[in-house]
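Run log, item B.
One chain of 76 residues. Sequence copied directly from the ordering sheet:
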Amino acid sequence: MAYDYRKLLGKIVEVYGTQYKFAEAMGLSEHTVSVKLNNLRPFKQEEIAKACELLCINPSEMSDYFFSPKVQSRLT
């Protein structure tokens, strides 16, 4: 299942300005963060917990940022 990380990316830019600076704070490469945000690799539980801490995401809002299913639109 693919997840919609647009809200997470918005929060990353709001708090860190760039994906690169967020990746540094996470202890990951920018490439690794990009791969995860593009649904090519999953976020690990530890990464989700650390990201929530760094981005001041309330645990009750975690699913909004990490577990919103990506909806594909179909043109018919």
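Observations after the first pass:
- The first helix runs from residue 6 to 16.
- The mean pLDDT is 95.
Flagged for discussion on Thursday.
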